[in-house]
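In response to a reviewer's request, we include the raw inputs and outputs for one of the modeled complexes. The three entities were modeled together in a single run.
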Amino acid sequence: MRSTLSLKDRFSRWLPRLVLSPSLVAIIVGVYLFIAWTGWISLSSSKMVPKYDFVGLEQYIRLWSTPRWETAVANLFVFTVLFLAITIAIGLLIAILLDQQIRAEGFLRAVYLYPMALSFIVTGTAWKWILNPDLGVEKVVNDLGWTGFVFDWITRPEYAIYCVVIAAVWQSTGFAMAIFLAGLRGIDTSIIKAAQIEGASLPRIYLNIIVPMLRPAFLSVIVLLSYISIKSFDLVLALTGGGPGNSTEMPSTFMFSATFRRNQMGVGAASAMMMLMTVAAIIIPYLYSELKEARNEH
Amino acid sequence: MKLITLLAASISLLPVAAMAESKGTVEGIHHWVSESEVNALKVITDKLASKGYTWQDSAVGGLSGANALQALRTRLAAGNPPTTMQFLGYEGLDWAKEGVLRSLNDLYAKNGWDKALAPQLLVFVKSDDTFISLPINMHRQNWVWANKAVFDKAGIAEPKSWDELIAAGDKLKAAGVVPLAIGDEPWQILEVFEAIVTDVNGTEFYKKAVIDLDEAALSSDQMVDAFDKLRKVRGLVDDGFTGRDWAVATGMVASGKAGMQIMGDWAKGEFLAKGMKPGEDFLCFPTPAATANFKFIIDAFGVFNNDDPAVIAAQDAWAESIMDPEVQKNFNKIKGSIPARSDVSVEDFDACAKRSFADREAAVASGNMVGGLTEGFAAPPQFSGVFSDVVGKFFVTDMSSKDAVQALVDGINNAR
Amino acid sequence: MSTEARSARRAHQFGRLFIYGSLIALAIFYLMPLWVMIVTSLKSLDEIYSGSFIGLPQAITFEAWEKAWGQACIGTACDGLRPYFVNSLLMVIPAVALSTAIGAINGYILTKWRFPGANFVFGLMLFGCFLPFQAVILPMAQLLGSLRLSGTIPGLVLVHTVYGISFTTLFFRNYFITIPDELTRAAQIDGAGFFRIFFSVMLPAALPIIVVSCIWQFTQIWNDFLFGVSFTAGQSSPITVALNNIVNVTMGRKQYNVDMAAAMIAAIPTLVVYIVAGRYFVRGLTAGAVKG
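The model returned the following structure tokens for the whole complex.
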């Protein structure tokens, strides 16, 4: 059989792979080669500029005995869990509410989506004022007469990370909403009607029937939100600058300051590798199961 | 790579440095982006223009210059350094060690600039035997700025010790004024802390603990005591200090909402901009020390190695513009600092600058002039970062002084 | 009217009230920062520094907007945001077009021209989504330097295209997988080749996902600061870098009103994209992106 393939056929067999190869090369260089480079630097004594020697795991030991890094890791977990949970909950709620044949849906949708469009370099300042007890919400509520109201999380190291969560949720809910809304629009409305005829209440229908049907939307939202959460950088810098007292430090801000502010490139590279390993530990099993399923389908 | 040819074909390449009709271009990365800073910079670039060279601005603001440093690092990695770069603290020395900076020995020898610079300052301008940067100004960090009307009303005079300052703060608090205006950014807090360390324990202790990072000094009782004092200062601060910019804090002092602020002399411009006069409307005095000391910060420019004689000529013109006495004078009148050159007269400067100038002379003579820790003139960034971590955390939590000292010692050792 | 019907109607009215009430309350929460920004941008600087941060302006002035657009200084160059706005457009249009085009063809290959290891290749690409970009700046700078693209807008376009491929490939692959293989097979039997099928069968069906991909890429690239500040300088900087230089003042006085106006100017293109294309966005997502 093989010998009967003409040159043209052989070319057309290889064409897709050929067209794909530049992308693959770009990814291999831009992602994997650079990860390897970072890995190498994390094993070197690099300080201000890259140095290609070998010091073993010294930088990792240094990293893990830095209290700020421990704070950053703890914060990433707290932040990711809360950010994902709240964004998904509110995003889903808004999507369901918007799906009830609402007037001015387009306008409301734009209202929920616009935060994605704004750069945090400046919205951070607006949020800073809103969260500041002497300028923002607390003051407004106090002025309205409820003098006992206290909302000073941003001044308290143990609560400041929740302020970062609030601002992050504000920025990303619109995106989650759009994906859920899309998922809802893809569901056959006759299912709802049928359930209603059987006497099920609307909240129950959503909880028991519709939400489970949104599984693919949930997966997309989780992937995109985790991406946003791992990369949250501008957000933290603009809102708290990592403060008060480094209580809102995140791995990404830690890596940046180690590499570019403190002349600890080796430590910065080690922290980048830790981040990558964490991501890999979560994403690779997910990818594996997703792609395996896809294979079974076809 | 298919991608790149595609790209190159789709958009015409934009040249990095558009050459204008001039002898050449000086491209500089700096982090001066506020209005007064830019106006000051224009004094230098105007001088450069009068020599026939064009200034090409590559400002990168933010994070006390960290963004600019990052830009420089990537430019060097790409083999495309700018003509000149603004340096703070050890940055210049670090780059000199990497061998990327041009030696300025010929220019220094020809013009005798080093004779006009204080010896403590030369530490940051000279790497071993090589001159590597050109200082334009000197800020003094250990200043207290006070609202005169508020001080008079509460019957407070210039405090002579930190205990007096804290007592004065309590008085202000009783009078319903915020005693100390400050933000919660670690660098603002560190400015207060390093002033306490130096003022209470003397410059010798500061040199040992902060500059030499001597473990015995770092873990000494004097350090614990300094943290105790900082804890008392914490009591003088209002709750709204979160995320407060230093200039907003200065505004509080100017409006009488707060009594005083501890900040470098760039704060002066805020008062002057409101038409307030030193000595009449606001007071400037050094942080109270048993022996007077002077904490300095300089901004300096370094130039990068280049073989092209045209670029070298442009660099020479740039260097001569910065070190020009007239330029130094006019630059600093706008910037709020004093000239880096000690031989430039400050006759027509304001009262605070004159005091700064006189204090510098005295501090140079008595050996009490030291680099400021906060802006990176006492310890390299990996160590000063530890100070700001610990001090920043101490200030906003109820960490004990002993724990703070321990965290400091551990952190410094870890970063060594 | 029976009591049952009446109570059902009342319950329905109550439900509507609840829905609208919640939507409006949430909308107020989402608009709060925008309100702060607009109000601040219309105030004079003196008013802000006298302690008025959130309240209404005493006197409305558009000075800050004019200044942000045409006069604000970035270093010694006082041209406002205008030139950088153009830079960003020059960067974002080719980068979005290229990354979307590449993503489309990758998605097509990975679903309709599957080869051994195609899933592995897709996995490799997808992992790129989660790369912390701070880690690749220095090696990327070296690469750009050796390609002589350092400090240029084309260099920036290249970087954004490379790191955009991961996402666009994900979008298109998940979309194309929902298109039945029979369609392409039929076209193949009719004698259509690789490219012909792509252009005449796949692309016409892909409009919704093209919108999604463009919106996502546009937002990401337009708002990017890290790459912009690393790989461009001075006059070739994108708008976020210019915005940062206006806003991020450490030792000088912050011009809050100009900052806010500048931020809104910088956000206009993305806002327009969201508002104009918002409905297609949801439609595009509906059409397949979430069925992955």
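As requested, we also summarize the result in words. The first helix of chain A runs from residue 7 to 42. The mean pLDDT of chain A is 84.
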